[in-house]
Amino acid sequence: MSSDKIDTIRSSSSGTIGRAVSHVRGQRLTLDSSTHPQPDAFTNSEAFLAGVSSCGVTLIEVHARETGVPLKRMDITIEGVRTAAEPNRFASVTMRFELAGVTQGQAEDLVRTYRSR
Predict the structure, then answer these.
(1) What is the pTM of this model?
(2) Which of 21, 95, 98, 103 could make a disulfide contact with 75, Cβ separation 3.0–4.6 Å?
(3) What is residue 116's DSSP assignment?
(4) Cα atoms in the Cβ-side hemisphere of radius 13 Å centred on 113
(5) For the domain with range 10-116, which CATH number is right: 3.40.50.620, 2.102.10.10, 3.30.300.20, 1.10.1740.10?
(6) Cα(42)–Cα(33) distance, integer angstroms
(7) Cα-based angle 86, 87, 93 (whole degrees, multiple of 5)
(8) Is residue 4 over pLDDT 80?
């Protein structure tokens, strides 16, 4: 048997143009199109960025615990910029890491670990 991890998500029409509903493991996530004039739910772009930043939080927290680094808490702020000329692409993405309970050197090492994975 393979040790590969397979994530399967099913996304479907919601009945509202520009809105999809995704299901995974009994959980439901409603996403609006990033071009929706007044989104009520997370947009697809916001969900993508949230996935990237939440991956950073969980990866760093687990790595800190496994290596004995006394990380107390952390925040990651992510910002994606899309230009009017190419609204379907991110022109830039920046992330700001705020870590509490560690030294500057430990924080830099933890962020470096995230960036290398």
Answers:
(1) 0.85
(2) 98
(3) H
(4) 18
(5) 3.30.300.20
(6) 9
(7) 95
(8) yes
